Amino acid sequence: MILVDDVGGIVPAISHSPWDGVTLADFVFPFFLFIVGVSLAFAYKKVPNKVMATKKAVLRALKLFIVGLILQGGFFHPLHDLNYGVDIHKIRLMGVLQRIAIAYLVVALCEIGLRVSSGGGDIGCDYMLIRRYHRQMLVGLVLVVMYLVILYGLYVPDWGYEVTSPGSTVKRFLQVKCGVRGDTGPGCNAVGMIDRSVLGIQHLYTRPVYLKTKQCSMDSPRNGPLPPDAPSWCEAPFDPEGVLSSLMAIVTCLIGLQIGHVIIHFKKHEERIVRWSIPSLCLLTLGVSLHLFGLHMNKSLYSLSYTCVTTGTAGLFFVVIYLLVDVKGYKRLAFPMEWMGKHALMIFVLVACNIVPVLVQGFYWKEPRNNLLKLIGIGG
């Protein structure tokens, strides 16, 4: 995520896809949700007291949500903007950490309360594994059906919004013509409509990725000036971590949880690798097929094909890392990734949210431009 934020504007190939399709950057967040699910299988391997476990899960999710609200709600501004502070009326309510908190909480509650109790640690066959965790799988299926029914069945009416002209306080009202069902374009999809209705358009992300599309940027796939014939929705806020799309994020986390269950209940390398590889390949194949048949991969909508492709790819990467580290024993090569994994939240907060750059620029010699960044050849 840090690489995408800092380099994505220079190298579009690793930046987020403007709308349909996927790039390298679009795999990062699902991979994180996937491994959160895997880790929850270990965290709740034994639950002696369901009430206490539930309280801890709720408290942990609440802390993460609040951290996300502070970091991504609008308080931390760009490095050279000294007007710090946030207007509560316009604070962004959702974000990366908030979505992780929601997915974590739902999947943790599923692991605490929905698995079928059985004696013994090991499970001898796939049938027993499915029987023990079939309720969790049913939750995932219900979420997928809900998402598809709402996305393709909900009527999206015409809507409008106000936008302030650059360099002035003049407000313009733009009207977006919709009146459709099942549209998955930037302006008339059910995902955006639900966020505008539930969260309020003033609480959505104001720099949506579709600003880099050809319709909205003369420098596409980079951000640029609006074309003269730009659609009216180009300047509208849109949250890539919204309400409806979070249902599929939960599904990604639930799939990771099932991968974690294989580690818990099967001890031989061959058993684990087979039970990871086959579902991952099936998901990847299903996702690519859906994309080819018109259900396009789309991170902003967190579409079903996107969920299948990214989660299937995450499962296969997991198999490769397991083969290298646990089977072949190349543990030294994985040490940097292990260290970053253990301190992921701290690194994200300090670097991606500009706290470290702000602190570094705060130390200078005589004049602010003579700061530490200039000393190491980064600053100007």
From TrEMBL:
Keywords: Membrane, Transmembrane, Transmembrane helix. The chain crosses the membrane at residues 27-45, 57-76, 96-116, 137-155, 243-264, 276-297, 303-325, 345-365. Residues 23-110 form the Heparan-alpha-glucosaminide N-acetyltransferase catalytic domain. It holds the Pfam family HGSNAT_cat. This is Heparan-alpha-glucosaminide N-acetyltransferase catalytic domain-containing protein. It comes from Oryza brachyantha.
